[in-house]
Design a protein that fits this description.
624 residues; mainly alpha; 0% strand; globular; DNA-binding transcription factor activity, RNA polymerase II-specific; nucleus
Length: 624
């Protein structure tokens, strides 16, 4: 660390007797440390881009001057109390002037509409924000554990941390991306300098002059280096402070114009892929509401096109057609990251529904893409954003729909990685006031608890306290029984005639999503019974095995009659779990065939063959 220019009064003079050294607070201050450490009166080691104290405390590290507003420290997510989540207080939105964007009733009436900053000084004046470049140290441990008394990021910092994970993996090549020469030039980077009407520069006939700090040294050699270009804060017209609603810089005044094949890709998302996300959502937000948000937000639209194009590269729109080139999907993905990097400067964007929707669409893209291990890590970043905004399964509206869709993704990732799920939210709504869709969603939460119980972390802890581990399993089994006894007749199978030569008796539940709920219920029971220590010895194991095989039969029987891809995707996961604990050779073969059939319809998973994985596991169980 650099030393002060003048020797402090407590230092030695010449060869004399050393004087008593004064406290660090009085005599050893420097002015070269980061702004956060100086404001917190802490010693800064001046490491860039993130100093040691800020990195250890999971705080944003900013060198230079903070905005002059007295609340700037809290706005950046800083807090002197590190064991509680940081909240961000924003100024009330200014009254819209005559030149502002027209209000959109379908969007602005949402109770979760973000609050706006009224002063442009709050826009970051320098590109020194944390986690905005792939050069940053992105080996971040979670800022909080799975328990509610741990620390989380503030609303200003959480989106940046999530974006940092994406940008770092993209820049380091962990996404297994092909070379994109079309992205390797400075011109594309300039396209995504947002204009005051929220439109990227490439949609404007007269190019916007490039700032000097942006134009120097940005001749890019590969697409990953695009993410190293920091955003430049816009200057309000005529220098008038507060004269422009900052939403104009990331929200388009007119609808985004699609070109050529983009219409087909967009339609494919709206009519097909969005239903995967909307599985248990009665309002179908991602097929009815989110597409309208995307028409006024370039970043969300690019994310949707990336997801749609990637799925079409796996499974063509019509049988016999050639697959779409994956390169197109990757290009949309990079353009989404480019937009995010520019729009992340604005507090109103970081608190918007558009960002939340983009985050979930990007996560779904990565789940389908299957390249590298980034998706599993990025789910943690999604959790940071939701926790910073106190979003959970009872938030209502689009926020609630996004939370449940994210939890379903995290449950599968946690099951595969044998870890706990990130969320610690506990639903509070009693069964008496739940509708059938609430009940369908509740089983996702119960399955998450079963996945937690089966995790390596809890198994390791249970070895030291078998009594409590047995009691915890019994508690969760009782919760499953309570759910099963509370659900309505909508979840019961209807009469159906099925082939007599199949090892599973067909079970037809209509609508199919409720059949998927029953599969998840059975999967949760299997995990608990498999991993709960047996106090009753061999006889207890025999009784459990009967229940487990009944659950396997239910999962297989329901899978036989599923007809929609959204349900097939979740069914694939339940079939895989059932297959791990199925001993009957004929049922094993049927499970493998069902997984293959589901994958042919959905195109998921694209990076592994789950049926083949089961075959490998079964071969290990053969007596040798």
């Amino acid at each position: 660390m650099s030393t002060a220019q003048q020797s402090p009064k407590g230092s030695t003079n010449g060869g004399g007797v050393p004087k008593q050294r004064k406290s660090r607070g009085r005599g050893l201050r420097t002015t070269t440390g980061c702004t956060v450490c100086r404001k917190r009166h802490m010693k800064c080691d001046e490491v860039k881009p993130v100093c040691g104290p800020c990195g250890k405390g999971n705080r944003a590290c900013i060198y230079g001057k903070l905005p002059p507003d007295s609340s700037s420290a809290s706005d950046a997510g800083f807090s002197t109390t590190e064991n509680v989540p940081v909240s961000v207080s924003t100024a009330p939105a200014p009254a819209p002037g005559p030149k502002l964007l027209p209000q959109r009733p379908s969007f602005s009436t949402t109770t979760s509409e973000p609050r706006l900053h009224s002063q442009s000084q709050r826009w970051p004046p320098t590109p020194g924000l944390p986690a905005m470049t792939p050069d940053d140290n992105l080996q971040i441990t979670s800022p909080q554990s799975n328990y509610s008394n741990s620390t989380g990021y503030g609303t200003e910092v959480a989106p940046l941390r999530w974006f940092g994970l994406l940008a770092g993996d993209a820049a380091n090549g962990t996404l297994d991306l092909p070379t994109l020469d079309t992205l390797g030039n400075a011109a594309l980077a300039q396209r995504y300098q947002l204009q005051p009407d929220g439109t990227p520069a490439h949609d404007i006939s007269t190019p916007r002059p490039t700032p000097a700090t942006f134009g120097d040294g940005v001749a890019l050699q590969n697409p990953s280096k695009l993410l190293q270009i920091s955003a430049i804060s816009p200057v309000p017209p005529n220098g008038a402070i507060g004269s422009v609603d900052e939403r104009h810089y990331w929200q388009a005044a007119e609808s985004v114009q699609l070109k050529g094949h983009e219409h087909d890709v967009f339609r494919h998302f709206v009519t097909s892929i969005s239903l995967w996300i909307d599985l248990f959502d009665p309002l179908k937000h991602f097929s009815t509401f989110v597409p309208h948000l995307a028409l006024r937000n370039e970043g969300l639209m690019k994310a949707i096109l990336a997801l749609g194009a990637r799925h079409l590269s796996i499974k063509p729109l019509n049988s016999g057609e050639a697959n779409m080139d994956r390169t197109a999907a990757v290009q949309y993905y990079y353009e989404t990251l480019q937009y995010l990097q520019s729009a992340m400067r604005f507090t109103s964007y970081k608190n918007s529904l558009e960002l939340l929707a983009t985050v979930l669409v990007v996560s779904t893209y990565e789940m389908i893409d299957g390249a590298g291990k980034g998706w599993e890590r990025h789910l943690k970043g999604v959790f940071w954003i939701q926790r910073s905004r106190e979003i959970n399964g009872e938030s209502g509206g689009l926020e609630q729909a996004i939370w449940w869709a994210w939890l379903r993704q995290d449950v599968w990732a946690a099951f595969r990685e044998r870890r706990r799920c990130f969320s610690f939210f506990k639903p509070t709504k009693p069964y008496q006031v739940m509708d059938i869709w609430d009940m369908a969603s509740k089983i996702v939460y119960l399955l998450a608890q079963a996945v937690n119980y089966a995790s390596d972390e809890e198994k390791s802890g249970g070895e030291r306290d078998l009594t409590n581990r047995i009691l915890r399993a019994n508690t969760l089994l009782n919760m499953l029984d309570e759910w099963r006894n509370s659900i309505s007749i909508h979840f019961e199978p209807l009469p159906v005639e099925g082939p007599a030569n199949r090892p599973f008796r067909p079970l037809w539940v209509n609508p199919p999503v409720f059949g998927t709920s029953m599969q998840m219920y059975c999967m949760a029971r299997i995990l608990l019974l498999i991993h709960q220590p047996a106090a009753g010895g061999y006889l207890e194991y025999l009784g459990r095995d009967k229940v487990i095989q009944d659950c396997v039969d239910s999962i297989g029987g329901i899978a036989l009659k599923l007809t929609d891809d959204a349900s097939r995707l979740m069914s694939t996961q339940c079939l895989f779990a059932a297959g791990l604990y199925c001993a009957d050779p004929e049922k094993r073969q049927c499970i493998a065939e069902l997984i293959t059939d589901h994958s042919m319809h959905t195109g998921w998973p694209s990076n592994t063959d789950l049926a083949e994985e089961l075959q490998v596991e079964w071969s290990k169980q053969k007596p040798g």
